[in-house]
Fold:
Amino acid sequence: MAEVVIHIGTEKTGTTSIQHFLSENREPLLAKGILYPVLGSRKDAHFDLVNSVHPLDNGGRYMEFIGSPNHSTDFLWGKLRDCIAANPTKKIVLSAEHFSSRLRGNALKYISDFFNALGIRPKIVIYLRPQADFIESSYSTEIKAGGTRVFKKVLEQYKTQPMRYNYKDLVGLWEEYFGKEAITIIPYEKSFIGNDIRRHFLQLLGVDNVNGIDFSSKPLNQRWSPPMLELARIVNLRMTELSNQERFNFLEYANTLISESIVSGDFSLMTEEQYKEVTTFFEDSNKVLCQNYLPGRESLFLDGKKPKTFRKTEQESSAYTF
Structure:
């Protein structure tokens, strides 16, 4: 029977880079025993597979960026069943960060029952980013997508979103349905994964010989600096006549000018006090998770505070709230 690996995220841990890399290397990976199947309209990742069970935990709603499919919940999972049956000697890889960010007990039971019926115990792979960095990166994504909220409004939410930021609770939910032995957690830090998450992911899959695999694609979802994010937020508020693509193209060009000519160094959106507050809030739960899954490791995140210039004073909003 085929092996199955489900890469569930989390968000902001190089998932897009991994997914594009896998989709661009389908043929050479297949020759090495790794099958990255196309299931649904998206060729890069398995968002359609997630979307099919999304209503089970979200009041009947489908994911907003995909919408309602024209088939039943079981349709794509049936396609996956056929794929597994047709490839008994392959390692089948599924990847979508929304497995972890959008699905809860009802959907996880559906997925667990699906694999139990096939006699398969999938391996669950989850990368975890230090929470303070995750919060900042999530805000960056929101602004890039057209958001207008100031950073403080996003920062206020981390205590009320345990399944997003409390990794002990999130991993515990998946453990309930798939078992501890099935789950591999990976700290999203250079000291653990190295300089290229794509190569680290291949190692997880057991691919040591990378001959014939294309690594030429540039990194995706590059970070914007705090000044660039504030400019983007203002643009999102004021330049509403632009299409999403026009707005993004303008901002990408502006980011090139700002990053090359104005901004240097690694700047944080948080004050040092805010940063310490976030890390302290999750210190105990991170410690428990580390003890359970990475025994012998001193702490879940070892790289410590990155060399950053913290914001000196808290800014509830800029002058440009209009």
Observations:
- Residues 124 and 208 are 20 Å apart (CA to CA).
- The mean pLDDT is 91.
- DSSP finds 16 helices and five strands in the chain.
